[in-house]
Amino acid sequence: MSEAQMSEDDADLAAAAAAAVVNIRTTTDYLSPYPDQVLENVLENVLIFLTSRRDRNAVSLVCKSWYRAEALTRSELYIGNCYSVSPRRATDRFKRVRSVVLKGKPRFADFSLMPPDWGAHFEPWVMEMINAYCGLEKLYLKRMSVTDDDLSVMAHSFVNFKELVLVCCEGFGTTGLAVVASKCKQLQVFDLIEAEVSDDEVDWLSCFPESGTCLESLIFDCVECPINFEALENIVAKSPALKKLRVNRYVTLDQLHRLMVRAPQLTHLGTGSFSPSENPAEPEPDLVSAFAACRSLVCLSGFRETVPDYLPAVYPVCANITSLNFSYANITAAELKPVIRNCHKLQIFWVLDSICDEGLQAVAATCKDLRELRVFPLDASEVNDGPVSDVGLQAISEGCKKLQSILYFCQQMTNAAVISMSTNCPDLEVFRLCIIGRYRPDRSTGEPMDEGFGAIVKNCKKLTRLAVSGLLTDRAFSYIGQYGKLVRTLSFAFAGDSDMGLKYVLEGCSKLEKLEIRDCPFGDEALRSGLHHYHNMRFLWMSTCRVTSQGCREIAQQVPRVIVEVFRWNQSIQEGENSDLVDTLYLYRSLEGPRADAPKFVNIL
Amino acid sequence: MEVVSILGEMKGKMKYDETELRLGIGLPGNSNKAVKNNSMHVSSGATNVNGKRGFVETTNVDLKLNLVSSKVESDELVDQVADSKEIKNLLGGAGSTDSVVKPPAKAQVVGWPPVRSSYRKNISSLNKAANKKGDEENEKVMSSPMGATFVKVSLDGAPYLRKVDLKMYKSYQELSDALGNMFNSFTIGNCGSQGMMDFMNESKLMDLLNNSDYVPTYEDKDGDWMLVGDVPWEMFVGSCKRLRIMKGAEAIGLAPRAMEKCKNRT
């Protein structure tokens, strides 16, 4: 938390606070015996308006009284790594928190690279918060392990609870959902995003109050259990504030229609399966009218089992939508075109590569305002040719000049297309290219992909996040270290030649916060080159590289306030064999000592 | 993970001759029945349950329940052996070579490409549905619009049920992996306040392993409970309605019935 810049507004606030202090001090009539306390009160009243956490962190560094005032006025607590600080320490410092954001496992856990039961338990946090923050209103958890008991404790303890958002969490089931639905009477937001929810065969939707709810957002498209549709229909009918509704794939087209006619005020809609039931209603429901009635719709998703014949129903909303998620829809370019050609305002587009380069060209032709594009692979195996390639990327770079964020899966790529994107899209902040075929060179020149990625870091001056793939030598890393001065998150896989690669990055990328590496030939020497920087980072992940336990031990000894976790899951290695490679190194900064809940396969050095 | 090791324990005990439909269930006393030659058993030492079991091994545990003698099945097994060894090399355990080995195209690398596993499951069923349009043979048992075959899976002693889509897997091997991943977050037996800590207590686990065997069973279309692995995979997918991983003691009675059924079928 070094030199964070204060924004202009905050500079004004600070100036106002300073002026107020000067005023009070110079007014001779004022007879307060505790001028410092007055200063703090003034500051508190001013700081309430400060919301950005980075700015608040800067404010808290000014002096002790500003630290105290800031701590008393911070209402949103953001913990990027649940093990970086203990619940007690956090609640001791910040006493008046109404909203908590808590993140647990690192991202590579999503790809089965982390053994289950590693940790990130919500329980110690909830137990602390029910005492310290009884007025808690909002909870946002990402990659945490949450149990039904935790949800129950939460639902029973926070009487003002309004918003629950669980992203990529697991460990709970429909049992927990039922408790939340029935006990949280003021619930406005109930969002489950990419969460793993076990089917306990509990009808949780019926647990919402039958007379109606104050729900504004109900998102459960990831829940893989059948639902009680009547209960859902009742909720939708009796929740006039409902704006966001994303249902799961157990909702058929007929059922979707019934929901839509009751809620034309929706702004965000997740359509569920988007295919008819086994015995479709006769006559077929008028979906087109239902969509036409949703004049405020801006975000469309779902399409879990799309029958393309029904896609034309969405035409009425295309002109207005800014976000479209087709990433579960196995549709062709021909099926996409009539939809996309109307989506002039589209800013966020997620899609399957089934649309091919041709589909991407259609996107590029219409969506001039596109900010974020994600192209996911229908078939994730490593084959020689895929439906999308450098051709699609080139088209997007030429058509969508305002692009800020891209995630692109493909089998083949060329440096030329990547370079083209780097020059055409100067606003790029996130560039994640995944060439599924490992170690693949440029398909037209046979060269490594060094120059392409080099151009990205060099030309995209706003770049903060980068993920690389394909055949890459140390040269690519030297470019990243040299030009990636703003980069905060980096992902490397199957890349590089030697320790030099990682050295370039650790020595060059001064703003680096999150580094995830797998299957690269980086060893202890490379690890050492980051000693000066690890305390500035949220975490470093290295799996299946060349790091030894001796190398990790060195880091643990030399860098204070950093926890070094090492996972081993090969056959048991005899104690004392120091030169063995570790499977995974996960290193993160922390104010606490080694955590007490580490499972057996985790060794904390 | 520990549960998967229980299933893996089964592997050691259920060694089937390729050409014979013999059921050497994991009954105490029947363990390590000598198997005739040609066992394609993955005996890389990874199946021994002594001390710690590695994560890699558990992800490659084979239920070892494939019986049918066909060249295809044998080849599949050989490939599995090769793959598991490849994967071990790839994951660079002790003894990995200096240069990064480029694996043959066939090997499946864990966690690559970086697509979330739940997303991948959903997408792969889309892919299969697209390929199998009009295929009526594998009729859905618990249907959802696009022909997935969801069956409930219960593990004796675990607090919650799970569901799997059998259509997502091509073999008993894959199913075994998925079940292992699914259940290793459960406590077995004592779900008391200590919860996870009890579960991870190794000595308790060893007691569990030594005292009881876990047997995967399923309920078929006729409502009978059968041992998983009696029949070819496709037939299993078509007839399985529900899965239950039960304690070995209860499974003893299943064997004779299963034998009869198979005889009736062939």
Describe the structure.
- The complex is a heterodimer of chains A (605) and B (266).
- Chain A has 605 residues and is α/β, with parallel strands linked by helices.
- Helix content of chain A is 33%, strand content 17%.
- Chain A is built from 21 helices and 23 strands.
- Chain A has a 21-stranded mixed β-sheet, covered by helices on one side. A two-stranded parallel ribbon of chain A has the order 5-7.
- In chain A, helix 16 (415-424) runs parallel beside helix 17.
- The model of chain A is unreliable at 1-7, 24-29 and 571-578 (pLDDT under 50).
- Chain B has 266 residues and is α+β, with helices and mostly antiparallel strands.
- Chain B contains 10 helices and 5 strands.
- In chain B, strands 2-1-5-3-4 form a 5-stranded mixed β-sheet.
- In chain B, helix 1 (2-13) runs antiparallel to helix 5.
- Chain B is globular and about 40 Å long.
- The two termini of chain B are 37 Å apart.
- Residues 1-106, 132-146, 186-212 and 255-259 of chain B have low confidence and may be disordered.
- Classes of the chains: A alpha/beta (605), B alpha+beta (266).
Descriptive key words:
heterodimer, A: 605 residues, alpha/beta, 21-stranded mixed β-sheet, two-stranded parallel sheet, 23 strands, 33% helix, disordered N terminus, B: 266 residues, alpha+beta, 5 strands, 11% strand
Order of helices and strands of chain B: HHHHEEHHHEEHEHH
Enumerate the spans of chain B where pLDDT stays under 50 for 5 or more consecutive residues: 1-106, 132-146, 186-212, 255-259
Shape verdict of chain B: globular
Q: What is the CA-CA span between the terminal residues of chain A?
A: 25 Å
- Radius of gyration of chain A over all CA atoms, rounded: 26 Å
Runs of chain A in which pLDDT lies below 50 for 5 or more consecutive residues are 1-7, 24-29, 571-578
Using only C-alpha atoms, the radius of gyration of chain B works out to 19 Å
Q: Which structural class do you get from the secondary structure elements of chain B?
A: alpha+beta
The chain-level mean pLDDT of chain A equals 91
Helix content percent band of chain A: 25-40%
The best one-word shape of chain A is globular
Let me know the number of strands of chain A.
Answer: 23
This entry's quaternary arrangement is heterodimer
Biggest sheet details of chain B: 5 strands, mixed
Number of helix segments of chain A? 21
Could you tell me the strand content of chain B as a percent range? Answer: 5-15%
